Amino acid sequence: MRVSTLFTKTLKNAPSDEVAKNAQLLIRAGFVYKEMAGAYVYLPLGLRVLENIKQIVREEMNAIDSNELIMTSLQRKEVWEKTTRWSDDVVDVWFKTRLKDDTEVGLGWSHEEPIVEMMKNYVHSYRDLPVSLYQFQTKMRNELRAKSGIMRGREFVMKDMYSFHATKDDLDAYYERSIEAYKRIYDRLGIGDDTYVTFASGGAFTKFSHEFQTICEAGEDIIYLHRAKNIAINEEVIDEAIVELGITKDELEQVKTAEVGNIFNFGTQKTDEMDLYYTDKDGVKQSLYLGSYGVGVTRVMGVIAEKLSDDKGLVWPEAIAPYKVYLVSIGNVAEQADELYETLQKAGITVLYDDRNERPGAKFADAELMGIPYRVTMSERLLSESKLEFTVRNSGETVLLTLDELLDKIA
Questions:
Q1: Residue 317 lies in a domain
Q2: Is residue 314 part of a domain?
Q3: Is 315 among the domain residues?
Q4: Out of 20, 116, 204, 369, which could bridge 313 as a Cys pair, Cβ 3.0 to 4.6 Å?
Q5: What is the pLDDT of residues 176-192, one digit of tens each?
Q6: Is residue 111 part of a domain?
Q7: What is the predicted pLDDT for the residue at 203?
Q8: How many whole angstroms separate alpha carbon 14 and alpha carbon 303?
Q9: What is the 3-class SS of the chain, one letter each residue?
């Protein structure tokens, strides 16, 4: 992509009403546009990051034998009434509306009830189990506060997965496989070292759950951490959890975190409430076991923007950056820069090519603000030496390389 044809430009200042660092940077760098508090447009650069995050999540979900689908955002009132979660007294984040025929419907904040209802058409016998399904879906939650940029949205993208099992042991085993898959996701996203599997309350879902909490000063959660034992407990369940785990509060370190994922073991509660059963090999009706597993795709993007940025701008991990290389041309080298652009693309390297008639400082500043992992600079002086300037965004290290050396380094 040429910067001259890229939709949206960088800004010197973020909107005055935007207080969250992640959103300020993403707006200034041209990744998102703020529609209103808690609702953002993902512009071409931002969409590329989201799609890269989704692909990592997709690969790890596929690796544990889950199947991708996409469900509806419109949800039926009567389905949720079966578990009492239609009531605002039970779930207080609903967006509800009415169809033209006066039917009351909800805009999906989660999908447990609808997918259990759907599975009545697909699960009848033990031969139909286990089943795991996941989706990337825009969720709608009427949050009271939305001041954390894309880390807390009223409209956001989430990966939610649901697994159905014939036995508790089978669900428990899949639950552990999912935990390991989530760890791989956060490792690949570049935040694995600061992300902990955390014992937490189930909230509107179930009594207890596990959250994936990333240490982040801009986060809204407090967890208690035992690094040596790799134990993390959400503040809201600390008194109950330390008894169960056989530790004391004095052993734990208090840290601020942002939740980037969660998983819930519903047992048979949800399926029993909704009359979803299967027939075992002896023809006897049995309860199904349900697990639910979420990753906040847009939220994790915000956490990464918040954690890994510096005073110059965003610093994307290579795996999710919108482009791998930011190519800068300086002076009368357009023809040679065009050739290098084509060469890099043919080598399978994604390139954002700054072909504008701009001063070098402005190009370098945009490269740093956007957080592209590597900057390659071509100038008349460098060409005379058959060299290219190669700069690593996260370290600032700069070296001179030949084209072959560059390709060996980044291809």
A1: no
A2: no
A3: no
A4: 369
A5: 999 999 999 999 999 99
A6: yes
A7: 58
A8: 18
A9: CEHHHCCCCCCCCCCCCCCCHHHHHHHHCCCEEEEECCEEEECHHHHHHHHHHHHHHHHHHHHCCCEECCCCCEEEHHHHHCCCCCCCCCCCCCEEEECCCCCEEEECCCCHHHHHHHHCCCCCEHHHCCEEEEEEEEEECCCCCCCCHHHCCCEEEEEEEEEEECCHHHHHHHHHHHHHHHHHHHHHCCCHHHEEEEEEECCCCCCEEEEEEEECCCCCEEEEEECCCCEEEEHHHHHHHHHHHCCCHHHCEEEEEEEEEEEEEEECHHHHHCCCEEECCCCCEEECEEEEEEEEHHHHHHHHHHHHCECCECCCCCCCCCCCEEEEEECCCHHHHHHHHHHHHHCCCCEEEECCCCCHHHHHHHHHHHCCCEEEEEEHHHHHCCCEEEEECCCCCEEEECHHHHHHHHC
| CA pair distance 185, 300, nearest whole angstrom | 11
Range of the domain at 39: 7-308
| Share above pLDDT 70 across residues of the chain, in percent, rounded to a whole number | 98
222: closest CA among 251, 196, 202, 204?
Answer: 196
Amino acid at 120: K
C-beta neighbour count of 218 within 10 angstroms:
18
289 and 373 together in one domain: no
Q: How many angstroms separate the Cα of 6 from the Cα of each of 156, 211, 344, 352?
A: 24, 38, 18, 9
Q: For residues 192-218, give the mean pLDDT.
A: 84
Q: What are phi and psi of 310, to 5 degrees?
A: -135, -170
Quote the pLDDT of residue 229: 85
Q: What is the pLDDT of residues 26-81, one digit of tens each?
A: 999 999 999 999 999 999 999 999 999 999 999 999 999 999 999 999 999 999 99
Residues 100 and 173 in one domain: yes
Statement: residue 202 has pLDDT above 70: no
